[in-house]
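ERR on first pass: missing label on line 2. Operator R.T. fixed the label and resubmitted. Corrected input:
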Amino acid sequence: MDSEKAMESGFATFKEEAAEILDSLEELLLDMADHQASPDMVRESFRLFHTFKGACGMFDLKELVTFTHEIESILDLVRKGSIALNDDMRRIFLSAVDFLRDTIAEIKPGQVIDDSEPKRLISSLRCIVKTGPETQTPDSIPHQPSTASQNKAFRLLLSPSEDVFFRGIDPLNVIDELKGIGQCYVLAQRSRIPDLLEIDPERCYTEWDVLLITDKDENQIRDHLGYAVDTSTMLLQALNSEQASEAYCSFGCNMSSAPILLLDEPHHEAHEGHMDAYERHAHRADSTVRVSSKKLDSLVDLVGELVTIQAGLTQRVEAWQLEQKPVNPEELYLISQSIEHLVSGLHGSVMGVRMVPLWDVSRALKRLVGDLAAKLGKCVTFVATGQDTELDKSMVERLPEPLMHLIRNCIDHGIEPPDEREAKGKPREGTITASATQEGVNVVITVSDDGKGIDYEAVRAKAEELGLIQRSATISNKELRELIFSPALSTRKIASDLSGRGVGMDAVRKCIDSMRGSVEVDSQIGKGTVFTIKLPITLAIIDGMLVRVGEEYFVFPMAIVEGCLEINNSARSEHNGRQLIEYHGSLVPYVRLRERFGIRGERPQVEQVVLVHVEDACMGFVVDVINGKNQTVLKSLNKIYRHVQCISGVTVLGNGSMAFILDASKLYRETLEAQGQGNGKLVTA
Amino acid sequence: MKVHSTKKGTVTRVTLQGELVVEEVAIFRQDLLMIMQHAHRIVLDLSKVTCLHFSYLQLLCAAHRHACKSNKTLSLSLGPDAQISRFIRLAGYETKAGCSETFGQSCLWRIR
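pass 2 clean. output:
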């Protein structure tokens, strides 16, 4: 049973690591489109496919091993300069990554995999290799002929760990790999092999001494050995000509057959080519959800301190009970302060663990832009900035869907075809820019294009036709832009004919709303459109303002609270059936939560109004009592209550009672609709 | 993997057939120990082996050392197919000199 569990756990780890490798591969292949494939990038792709193959081999996933091996063979030709990597090949490699990712996500140990798609992809690749250009473009994969002057000698001492066979790794593959990059002389050191009576035949006792003559430099050799680093001790030494000759003799080689060696002392070649992309990729490799030991140490320290304080508190309580000493409020206050300090530290540390950068989202968008532009015959460049910006993990996982929809919108309807752009005096290639920045407790993400902008007349005409606005009504462009997010308009595919995708801009807004964020759009005819998404950095714990109505508690996210007012009978007023109060010289609409949620009981003589900033406007919510600031741990609503509108979650208060977290945006929009102003703002803040 | 043993005079011929995979190497060690208890001159015939895991080379080396210590002989018969020879060469086992463990005696991997 233990071995089954170990197998399950090992397989889960394999799936995670395989997914990471595929993510890195995808990014690398995408980078190749922007920067042309440098030798380093090709080598890194080869290494990643090779590592992936090795991992699949460990779990006996034969079909995947065969498929990856075929890809590797073709990449090897590129690596050696025999063929040039073109865009068609790169796309097929990306499709291969897609197939492998989907397969790995679903696969179970020992499962047989349908190899029809791999066969199709390999067949396409072979077709390109056969018919593709024999020579290369000057900037792509420079061929380095193995001339005598470039040969260098290296000696490698390879000592695999004894359990290497258990890990499914065959050390001879390393030697085979070295044979692929140069002339290789191998001597096995067998002195550690025990007698038959003592040997554990499933362990490796052999070490190897390898003399390698190659035109590759030390780093390139290490790249080839990369996947064996975890399971072997390796000592790679560059030899000068004298050392090389000695090594030659000791390996028992015939000197007349020795390749001409470089006579100079060995040196390290500087990396050349498109290192920016390569380095970015290397940086990207650790951008997964891993927790640094430093962060964990800090958490453990904090928990340790918390345990100490708790022990101290228990001692005091026992002393007060047993010795019947009076409770010392000062001591209690000090303990409470210490706990508060530690909990605040724990909060910060735990939130830090949950924060992940936006690299994965950016990669997905880049891929989408490339694929969709090719499909629609448009030339589009994707520029991403601020991918290092961190956001709560749960949001990063939900963000791709709305962002992808916005990008589709930009490509499908914003960016004009190349000829049309040229006629307008624009570059033939359109640009879609995605950027992310942290602004206080929010992350602001913008997606913009330099296309034709929103056709306000078309939006207006359709809105009139659908009865969303009255004909001849004065509607600003801003209000027309808001209409794009209206379910009626977007699901009818009017302003943007997002055919076949079954998701409208209202779905984007719903998704962003569910993360307690906001989405706005700005557009200039002929110049382009900008979507701005604002999201709170974290969803797990927020600063909230706790209020009470009757016996019910509610929480407003502190980030949207603008201020509070007292309201009595004389201050209330109604204008054309709308409830308004004066705030900083403006009339602000308000809603009484008691009425909205049907809470029984008498209204107090003096009520409180919480003024919140929502969607560029200000709105008041009338409550009985304002309890003050509260650290709110968010919990999602039970399935039974999911249909309840305008509540985004719940939290449990210190006294054990429950408080509802208000969705101010929904309440605001609901109020607009109720007051017949569905298309405009009430008061601009 | 199939292991078949025949005795002709003083020579015991052990024929291995098929794929020699790492999962079965421990079983083969037991087989070898049993055979070597009773035989004095052993020839291991690898000519019908289609595929060989590296762990078997180590095991054969260990068996040869055991044979030398026990004053027995162990030799290999590779047959006309050069596949196994190539594998031995790739693994760096092929040698012009014997190893220190079996000094003065025949070496399983010496080039003839």
